[in-house]
Amino acid sequence: MSLTPGQCMERILKRPGRFAWRVVRGFRRNQGFLLAGAVAYHMLLSIVPLFALLLVALSNLYSPDALVETVSRELRFLVPAATDNLAKHIGGFVRNKEVVGWVGMLILIFFSTLAFTVLENAMSVIFFHRVAVQRRHFLVSAIIPFAFIALIGSGLLMITVISGLLQSIEAEQLRFLGRDWQLEGITAVVLYLLGVTGLVLMLTAMYLVMPVGQIAPKHALIGGIVAAGLWELTRHVLVWYFSTLSLVNLVYGSLATAVVVLLSFEAASLILLFGAQVIAEFERCGLDRDNSPADGFHT
To answer: Would you state the pLDDT for residue 286?
Structure first.
């Protein structure tokens, strides 16, 4: 017997501990840490080619220096402890884009799509109850990475344009209620809010598109908000840890940046996939399954 979303929520609220244990057990059974490691590794391979590809394409529409500044700012939401090194490398790549050539562009495109493809496969493991009854056409899977790349590129261009407009009016004064209000500092606040909003929308889009079938938009939005909030807390902890307690520079030397980025992506992948596991368990509740060990995907 199927349960309505309201009945599922009522059941969860009555026994939240039981639902939480089901989520944790399902995440362990699906080898969530292993999946997160795979996603994090391919994110490491994809992050530089992705932003390099976007900047090479968008530099034909807007100032490359402004785009590099936007990427540097937005990378703080993804790689909080190694932003400067990555931004410097990507900026140098864009300034020498003429040496890339067609073969180089194809290589960039290939590596840029890796993380999205692996994430889709990881979602298929978590949402095994969907994959078992329906399949996604391979052309749709091939298009999804390019759709997300186009979405990220549109967001970068929009934030860059807004940043330029805000900086042009920051020195102005606004007269309101008989008083003159200084607009200095408004750029940083607005861009931070835009960054957080963009992260929520990106996570929501991933929860909507990556799993096979259709997830209720409100469920995906709730998952996106929760995942973004958890990541916002996590990234501040990572910045504090790597700047105060970590010995990563001493231990790994020249490999420190790669290790820091990989650990950051590992944490982000765990949060993303755990949020997907919550949505999957909520759906199984709707199917009135008890998520027993005999049910679902096994590794």
So the answer is: 56
- Give the model's pLDDT for residue 172: 56
- How many domains are contained in the chain? 1
> Could you tell me which residues come within 8 angstroms of residue 136 by beta carbon, excluding any fewer than 6 positions away?
212
What CA–CA distances, in Å, run from 58 to 43, 63, 279? 21, 8, 35
For residue 52, what are the domain limits? 5-286
Tokens 């993804």 belong to which residue?
78
Is 252 part of a structural domain of the chain? yes
Residue 272, in any domain of the structure: yes
Averaged pLDDT, 44-73:
83
The model's pTM: 0.79
More confident: 241 or 135:
241
Number of residues that make up the chain: 299
Nearest to 107 by CA among 38, 155, 52, 165: 52
Let me know if residue 299 belongs to a domain: no
